[in-house]
Design brief:
Strand order of the largest sheet of chain B: 1-2-3-4
Structural class of chain B: alpha/beta
CATH class of the largest domain in chain A: Alpha Beta
Number of helices of chain A: 16
Number of strands of chain A: 18
CATH superfamily of chain B: Aconitase, domain 4
Helix content of chain A: 25-40%
Oligomer: heterodimer
Number of strands of chain B: 7
Largest sheet of chain A: 5 strands, parallel
Largest sheet of chain B: 4 strands, parallel
Shape of chain A: globular
CATH topology of the largest domain in chain A: Aconitase, domain 3
Distance between the termini of chain B: 45 Å
Structural class of chain A: alpha/beta
Distance between the termini of chain A: 50 Å
CATH class of chain B: Alpha Beta
Chain lengths: 421, 162
């Protein structure tokens, strides 16, 4: 019997010849991601850290990104505590404020490698399935335990196979595809499961794969993974990321799946996830004309260069509506610099956008970009939960960068096809 | 004993708003904001021994552990739901908070029913009905029996050292 991606990785990493769904295995993750929550994590184990130290100085990847620059004395004290911890334990992989959103950093700096296990105290850790890693979110307490022991248990998940056919036709995007998938199988449709993408994957860029994998958790998935093809290899070589082809595991042709679905990319249309759940899928037509107080382009879901490029191409020579505001948040310093060099940032600012530092704050209502009661936000982020952007009486609609950029011109939800025509 | 009844897809932002995640980490800081955007009655009225009953996908969303930490601290006896999201499930085991997946128990509950649970036998009593739920695998029970993951890990490190 063949094995799925998840079964193969967990078998190799647990020293078993084969594993089956439901089996619990002990693994040593290759990397552990933590961010601003590192201060709370190390606070739980301060005595043990003094006594035993960290298990590996290159296990942790620590990125300050959630409330940056610090919004308060309390945040600043948390950041300071983390910097001291990093120095004291000589940790190798620390990225201070301004470097970028943790998931973009793990991906861009090559920490997530094909066939590796990356666990992180952030639910969007699943993003690294874009490069063929087994990546999944955990809680702070578990992160603390892994810092000390280097190991944890994982249950082998059953797998859903999603076959993609054809190619996306602008203005439809990867965001529209993943929102359509989540709307189809529901917010818990992949609960506890691995999701593998098969078929015409090669038509998707790495940026597009990241957007899709990033949102796996919004359908409950444990991991969301793509095969390592020529596009992925090109990404590794152009970013000087070394990896071993032998580690790039993929499912056997006769692997057993719990469910199989097919999506025709040619038929994907621009969509919106309406408040207050990510699976509340609407066609643009259903929500067209909804007035929008704040447009938000960026985040770990859609803050890459190609996303900013689309926004800039739509807004070039135009002004956003006086009835709305537009926030731009590149996912990393590298992306920000590239977007500046290409003139995208200038174009967006000229159109009336406000540039935010590469971080997570607005997305979870922790810092900047908060909403007022009764306001509506059209966002490229990954969650539209009630209260998510700081106010439970506000509404968040999720869409692609193209949809948000076009909507910013009109101050209301607008079909991006309107500009494409 | 009171049962707090909620619907499907109760996410972590409803259980503990994101705006507090980097300012509230201790139990005392967490308690006043528990379920703030879902039920303003909860934080001030919840008592030790109360239950939460909910629909499918309870705890979906963020990896923040304040919901599990907070619900354990205020003395929630068990969260009974049709299903749980995986990160919340792990977080709850790690805090020693009892989760019971029983769609039957949830659907059978009506206001005023007395509820009790026998975690050792894997039984939940709702009104005059009894429902069984599967026991946790030994790996997870060990963590709960140790008093949560940190206590378990500390014990393990101590043993390794000796």
């Amino acid at each position: 019997m063949g094995m799925t991606f998840a079964e193969k990785v967990l078998a190799v990493k647990s020293g078993n010849k084969e594993v089956v769904p439901g089996q619990i295995v002990t693994v040593k993750p290759d990397h552990l991601l933590t961010h601003d929550n590192t201060s709370a994590i190390i606070g739980k184990i301060s005595d043990e850290l003094d006594k035993y130290g960290v298990v590996r100085d290159d296990l942790s990847i620590i990125v300050l990104d959630h409330v940056i620059p610090a919004a308060s004395e309390k945040n600043a004290a948390g950041h300071k505590k983390i910097r001291s911890f990093v120095k004291e334990h000589h940790l190798k992989n620390f990225f201070d404020v301004g470097e970028g959103i943790c998931h973009q950093i793990v991906y861009e700096k090559g920490f997530a490698k094909p066939g590796s296990i990356v666990l992180g105290s952030d639910s969007h850790t699943c993003s690294y399935g874009a490069v063929g890693a087994f990546a999944s979110g955990i809680d702070r307490t578990e992160a603390a335990s892994i810092m000390l022991t280097g190991e944890t248990w994982l249950k082998v998940p059953p797998t859903i196979k999603i076959t993609l056919k054809g190619s996306l036709k602008y203005p439809a995007s990867a965001k529209d595809l993943i929102l359509t998938i989540i709307g189809t199988i529901s917010a818990d449709g992949a609960g506890y499961k691995a999701v593998e993408f098969h078929g015409d994957v090669s038509s998707l860029s790495m940026d597009e794969r990241f957007t899709i994998a990033n949102m796996g958790v919004e359908m409950g998935a444990k991991v969301t993974v793509f095969p390592v093809d020529e596009t992925a290899k090109e990404f590794f070589s152009s970013n000087n990321i070394s990896f071993s082809q032998n580690d790039a595991v993929w499912a056997d042709p006769d692997a057993e799946y719990e469910r199989e679905l097919t999506f025709n990319l040619d038929e994907i249309k621009p969509v919106v996830a309406a408040p207050h759940t990510v699976d509340n899928l609407k066609s643009i037509k259903d929500v067209e004309g909804t007035p929008i107080d704040q447009c938000f382009i960026g985040t770990c879901t859609n803050g890459r260069l190609s996303d900013i490029k689309i926004a800039a191409s739509i807004l070039k020579g135009k002004k956003i509506s006086p009835d709305t505001r537009l926030l731009i948040l590149p996912a990393s310093r590298k992306i920000l610099r590239e977007a500046m060099a290409k003139g995208y940032i200038d174009t967006l600012i000229e159109a009336g956008a406000l540039l935010l530092p590469p971080g997570c704050g607005p997305c979870l209502g922790a810092h900047q970009g908060a909403l007022a009661p009764g306001e509506k936000c059209l966002s490229t982020a990954n969650r539209n939960f009630k209260g998510r952007m700081g106010c439970k009486e506000a509404e968040i609609f999720l869409a692609s960068p193209a949809t948000v950029a076009v909507s910013a011109i009109y101050g209301k939800i607008t079909d991006p096809g309107k500009e494409a025509e | 004993m009171r049962v707090w009844k909620y619907g499907d897809d109760i996410n972590t932002d409803m259980l503990f708003p994101g705006k507090y995640t980097y300012t509230c980490s201790t139990v005392e800081e967490i308690k006043p904001h528990l379920l703030e955007d879902l039920d303003t009655e909860f934080a001030s009225n919840v008592q030790k021994g109360d239950f939460i009953f909910a629909g499918k996908n309870f705890g979906c969303g963020s990896s923040r552990e304040q919901p599990a930490l907070g619900l354990k601290a205020v003395g929630i006896r068990a969260v009974v739901a049709e299903s749980f999201s995986r990160i919340f499930f792990r977080a709850s085991i790690n805090q020693g908070l009892l989760l019971i997946e029983s769609p039957e128990a949830v659907r059978s509950y009506s206001a005023g029913d007395e509820v009790d649970v026998d975690p050792v036998e894997g039984k939940i009593y709702v009104g005059d009905k009894t429902f069984s739920f599967p026991k946790l695998p030994p790996e997870m029970l060990e963590i709960i029996e140790a008093g949560g993951l940190l206590a378990y890990t500390k014990k393990k490190l101590e043993t390794r050292k000796n």
